[in-house]
Amino acid sequence: MRLNTAIFSVAILFVAVSAKIDPQNLRCLVCRQTFEELNKAIKGVEKWKKVDVGNFRMDSSGNTMQQKVPAHRSAVYISELIDGICKKMDDYVRVYYKATGKLAIIQLMTPDGGMNPESSKTKFVTDDDLNKSLEYYCERMFEDNEDEITDLYKNRPEDDVMPNAEREICFDHAKYCEEWMLPNENDTTWTPEMEAEYIKVHGPDPYGFGGLPQTQFHQQAPDSDGYDDTDDDEEELAAEDTPEEPLAKEEL
Question: Which end of the chain has fewer CB atoms at under 10 Å, N or C?
Answer without folding.
Answer: C
